[in-house]
Amino acid sequence: MSSTRPYFEAIARQAGAMPQARYVLPQFEERTAYGFKRQDPYAKLFEDRIVFMGVQVDDASADDIMAQLLVLESQDPDGLITMYINSPGGSFTALTAIYDTMQYIKPQVQTVCLGQAASAAAVLLAAGSEGKRLALPNARVLIHQPAMEGMQGQASDIEIVANEIDRMRSWLEDTLAAHTGRDREKIHADLERDKILTAAAAKEYGIVDQVLTSRKTPASPHSS
Predict the structure, then answer these.
(1) Do residues 123 and 187 make contact, with C-beta atoms less than 8 angstroms apart?
(2) Which of 9, 71, 129, 135 is the most exposed place for a label (fewest CB within 10 A)?
(3) CA–CA dist 188, 162 (Å, integer)
(4) Is 156 labeled as catalytic in the residue annotation?
(5) What is the pTM of this model?
(6) What is the pLDDT along the chain (224 residues), one digit of tens a residue?
């Protein structure tokens, strides 16, 4: 049997960010016209048209994200959706499922990297609507080529897997070229090894459009 490593999964191990048990989320109550409503932070963010991708990109998280995007489109086809990203990457099929949904829906999707957008998550960061791809100052972005673990089986099995890896890499290069404006040859060369970018470098590369600083209003020099 041949065995492939999920697309970009190596960086998840590198970062020590494979799925772990989540701590209990705090809940809070809000007063509404119908009484009090108990919520958690993710539900509150969703009400504000914010999708938070803070886990590995796998089939389960992809289903959750796609469902949220489709619901937000049905609620307001013209309203902006914001996707916050802090992810070590994940599988190729989960990546393309989310990517296709982002491109398919009518609302513009603003992407914001806080923490890291590695591998598959970096592609999703770059896939945000033009002019609306953002990063916080200490965020990092990592791109690299698809990889596979050692395989066993007949030569024909290995050839099938190798052809699939080539197809995935070709898609990755074409997609990053389309969203960054970089030459495909440049991206091909950069993907030979892990390429780690600071927020500023990601802006220069074309993965994000702006590096944010703070939403705080500067204090007046005359304030006490």
Answers:
(1) no
(2) 71
(3) 17
(4) no
(5) 0.82
(6) 333 444 444 444 444 444 444 555 666 667 777 777 777 888 889 999 999 999 999 999 999 999 999 999 999 999 999 999 999 999 999 999 999 999 999 999 999 999 999 999 999 999 999 999 999 999 999 999 987 665 667 888 888 888 999 999 999 999 999 999 999 999 999 999 999 999 999 999 999 999 999 888 666 555 54
Q: How far apart are CA 125 and CA 84, in angstroms?
A: 9
Helix (H, G, I), strand (E, B) or coil at 96: helix
Catalytic choice (144, 170, 179, 223): 144
Q: Is residue 167 part of a domain?
A: yes
- Expressed as residue numbers, the domain containing 79 is 10-17+36-211
DSSP character for 132? -
Catalytic residue among 119, 222, 223, 224: 119
Beta strands in the chain (DSSP E): 28-32, 35-39, 50-53, 81-87, 109-118, 133-135, 140-143, 195-198, 210-211
Is 194 inside a domain boundary?
A: yes
| Amino acid type, 93 | T
24 found inside a domain? no
The whole-angstrom separation of Cα 65 and Cα 40 is: 17
119 as an active site residue: the answer is yes
Q: How many domains does the chain have?
A: 1
Q: Quick check: is 50 in a domain?
A: yes
CATH code assigned at 194: 3.90.226.10
